[in-house]
Amino acid sequence: MFYPAFLNLQGKRCLVVGAGAVAERKVISLLHSGGDVHLISPSITRHLHDLIERNQVSWRDRQFQDGDTSGFFLVCAATDFPQTNTRIFKEAHEENGIDLVNIVDVAPECTFASTSIVVLDKVSISISTSGKSPAMCKRMREYIESKFCRDAINHLEDESHWSASNNIQKTPVMEEHDFESKVPYPVGFLIEGRQCMTVGKSHELSERVNLLHRCGAKVKMTNDALMQNSSAFLIFTDAGCREYDGSQLVELMTNPMCGTFYTPLTVIDRDLVIGITPNLDSKSEWQQAKRIQADLATQFESRGYGHFLDLLGSFRSKVMNLIPTQTQRKQFFEEIIDQNFKGEKGSCCFDFDNLGCSAECTFNLVRTRRTDQVQQTIKKKLQTYSYSY
Description:
- The chain has a domain of 73 residues.
- It has a 5-stranded parallel sheet, with helices on both faces.
- Helix content is 33%, strand content 19%.
- It is of the alpha/beta class.
- The chain contains 11 helices and 17 strands.
- About 6% of the residues have low confidence.
C-alpha cells in the first residue's frame, strides 16, 4: 500500500520532463498546488502553450540534458523513452539526492506516485490504487465527481502534440487555469522497506506508526529532538515549527500546514486508499472533510473493492510485459472490468449506485470469492491479446 499524503508545494521548484496529456495534467496539478513549475520538452500541448505564454510555466524547448534536475524539490518524468526516464531518475534521486521523484508507470523508479484527485470548493479528495489498477482508479474518480462535482483538471479536452515552430492558432486559457486557489498536491509515498522516523509520543503519532507498518516501512521511534541530518525518508513529529528548517520530508503534527507534507483523513480497503483534506486556503473545513470521509467509508470500506483490486493487480506485471502499448493495456483492463459471465451487455456499475446489484460481472464474482472462472477468462483473454503482437 502507498502511504497517503498531501504535499505543501507553495513556491517549491518542480520539474516536469515530457509532453502530451500526462505531462499536461502533472503541470496543471503542480500549478494548482502552488508549485514553481518548469517544463523540458521539444513539443507541447496547446494548454501548456497558453500557460507558458502567461509566464505561469518556465519552458525549455529541447530534450532532457545531464544536469537538468539540479536544484529541484520534485521531479516528474513522462517521456516516451524508457532509457531517458531511467537516466532522469538516477540523476535526480541517486546523484542529486532529490527525495521526490516520479517516473510515470515505473514503480521501481519512483519515490512517490501521483494520485487521482477531485477538487471541491473547500476540500480535495485523492484516490490511489497503489499502482495496481489505473482503470479502477479512473472509474472511482468519475463516480466521486458525479457525487460531488466535476473537476476541471480531469476533463481537459484531448489535443495532439504540436511543435512550437508550427503556426497553429492558440486556444484561450480556460478560467479554471488561473490557479488562484491553491490545493494540496496528493501523492502516495512508496515506502516499502524505507526507513521512516517518529519523534514524540502522542496518540496521533501511534496512528501514523500503524499506517507506516501497513505500507511496509521500517519505523524508528524516538522522543529526542527533530534530527535535521536524519537519513529517514519520512519524519513525523509533534515538535514545533522552530525545530524544522524545511530541508526534509516532515509532517509537523501540531501545525500540519507548515511541514512539507501531511496525512489526510483516509478511507482504506486493502490497497485502495482515499484521502480527504481541506484545501490550503480552507484550513477550517475539517468538519466537511470528516463528513465526506464518513460518506465514502460507507461506500468503499469492506465492500470488496480491495479484493477486486488485488486480482487486477496480480495480472498487471504480465499485462505490462505482454501488451506493449498503453492504449491496448487500458483496453484490456476495461474489458476485464466489464466482463459479464452471463453474456449481458453493458459496463460494470461497480455497485456505485446500485448497492444490491447482482450482475455476474467480474467485480461481483471476485468480491463473493468466485474467482476461478474469472482468472481463467483473464488468462485466455491475455493470450488473445499477446498473440496479436
